[in-house]
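Incident log, entry 3
Record: Enoyl reductase (ER) domain-containing protein (390 residues)
Problem: checksum mismatch between cached and fresh output.
Input:
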Amino acid sequence: MRAVQVSEYVKVSPITRHRQSFLYTKYHTRSNLNPLPPKQTPRKSKTNKPIHHYRAPLDLKTTEVPTPTPSPDKYLIEIHSAGTNFFDILQIQGKYQHQPPLPWIGGAEFAGTIAALPTSSASASSSLKYKVGDRVFGATQGAYATHVLAPESTLLPVPPGWSFEDAAGLFVTAPTSYGGLVHRAGVKEGDWVLVHAAAGGVGLSAVQIAKAKGATVIATAGTARKREIAKEFGADYVVDYTDKAWPEIVKKLCKENRSGNGAAGVDIVYDPVGMIEASLKCVAWNARLLVIGFAAGSIEKVALNRVLLKNVSIVGLHWGQYAKFETGTVGEVWKGIFDLVAQGKFRGTAFKDESFFGLDSVPKALQALGGRETWGKVVVNVDEKAKSKL
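Fresh output:
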């Protein structure tokens, strides 16, 4: 298969059997995503050896690496679409908490078809959940490729009527939002929910889930286009969070449209950015504030007196650890998501304003994602089957 490789650091021998993928062989040490100036050369270390700055992601190139073969417990998946995530960029820079040994293939989320069964299936095929040709989506290291190996526990069936493009962005965003809103915050009919960064992948998922549960949604976003998208996905009100007075705007909306304790603010805050401190200014009594992430790049310090005075709860969600600590909840969350899909209350959030086709477009997709130029889930369509819904 083909892969993206840093050729100046690792030399790959010619091979005959291959697949296409993204292969990283050296970590980028710069904190931003912009290329170095053309004439800039690597600086010298104390030992007088060059310290190379890899210009991720635009320097990434595709190359040829061997196609993996099924293992006793892993399926071989032919990938048609791959989702992008901010942690993919962090891995490229060598800053993520989970760094594979060099060389490695990037990407995590994917959607595709089963190409081969686990090798242990010869004597126990009846116990396998999937068969060759089944449409699946999931997550595992190495999704920027034409093929990947994945255990059954990381795979789910593509919902009927969904394209691979939309399914490729489902595995991380949907359960994060459903687990947070439903299982951690207990969203219910009549609640008012404030969703920050509402036009992002988890944000659009949160908007849809909150609406499906009967809540009123106030969505924040930084551009007119992103606020337009949030409205298209069901938000009742949109607010520009670049306006420093946004908490007062939220309070005004609640005062004009709610009564009783609700007139003071919202019942739930869904925050993947790092806006809990400011959000405490516009919450109602007994509000629940969900800490989903820190996309703004810094960890907040919260005035706990406000937490006490408004009798609010601040709860975190680390969805990636549920498979370890609450396996039963994982199944409940996915059942809830698939129920909403079947009811027509949840749809894919793939970014549609620009297309990214082929693995050669991964660098451009990651740059767009890192530059906050997109909405929803940025998906790379690996081949022409990506938009197929059959």
